[in-house]
Design goal:
This is DUF2567 domain-containing protein. It is a single chain. The chain contains six helices and five strands, in the order ββαααββααβα. It is mainly alpha-helical and 224 residues long. The protein has a domain of 146 residues. The strands form two sheets. A three-stranded antiparallel sheet has the order 4-3-5, with no helix packed on it. Strands 1-2 form a two-stranded antiparallel ribbon. Helix 3 packs parallel to helix 5 and helix 5 runs antiparallel to helix 6. It is elongated, with a radius of gyration of 37 Å.
Length: 224
């Protein structure tokens, strides 16, 4: 009869004296730090998922009404933008020809570009300022408010062109009895519709930079 205790199987290791001894450790070299696989219990996995906050989703219904309000308010910016443009854009000194046609004098035709450039700069500055104001509305940050701001800026640019042209025509009216060869100041006007993208582009750029600088998944909506 065997009276000793059974010994668990181990690994033989060579000692300095030439002998061998049994090692119960599964690692050959005690100095190694090899990581062993560890099983995660279902209870621990459920606890970890409960402690991890859920990823925030895009809020549409709650932000829809503020976005519509933003469209209407931003569109009103076209009124002061058109008024300011009508005061800054220079007229063209032109010569009255036969049949009521006018021809700009010398370099006066460059003022057409000046009117376009001034309106583009005004719209770009208005877009950046609008983006800063929209970003300050912390509780409504997100793509819905951004889309509302872009649509409102499009309407504001169109309204600014129409309002600015009407005001400029009132500042530089045609003379009552013009004669052939008279110098007539022609009111400035925006001759291209590409200026409509200036304000939405600036708004999207400013809002996008603020979003990329923010480090929260929900853009800080919960910190309001």
């Amino acid at each position: 009869m065997v009276t000793g205790k059974f010994r668990k199987p181990g690994r033989w290791r060579r000692t300095r004296g030439g002998g061998r001894r049994v090692s119960d450790s599964p690692v050959d070299d005690p100095g190694t730090t090899r990581a062993l696989p560890e099983r995660v219990e279902p209870q621990e996995a459920a606890l970890l998922s409960a402690l991890t906050p859920p990823r925030p989703k895009v809020v549409v219904k709650a932000d829809l009404l503020p976005a519509i309000s933003a469209i209407s308010l931003i569109a009103l910016l076209g009124l002061p933008m058109g008024w300011l443009w009508s005061r800054l854009a220079p007229p063209q000194e032109s010569v009255l020809g036969r049949g009521g046609t006018v021809s700009p004098m010398l370099v006066e035709s460059y003022h057409e570009f000046d009117g376009i450039a001034i309106f583009t700069l005004l719209a770009f500055a208005a877009g950046l300022l609008t983006a800063a104001v929209l970003w300050r509305i912390r509780g409504r940050r997100g793509p819905v408010l951004l889309i509302g701001g872009v649509l409102g800026s499009l309407v504001a640019s169109w309204l600014g062109i129409q309002m600015g042209g009407s005001l400029a025509a009132g500042l530089y009216p045609m003379p009552s009895n013009p004669q052939l060869g008279d110098l007539i100041p022609v009111a400035p006007e925006v001759t291209t519709m590409w200026v409509l993208v200036a304000m939405p582009l600036a708004l999207s750029l400013g809002y996008g930079i603020a979003t990329s600088w923010n480090g929260f998944d929900d853009l800080g909506r919960r910190l309001r």
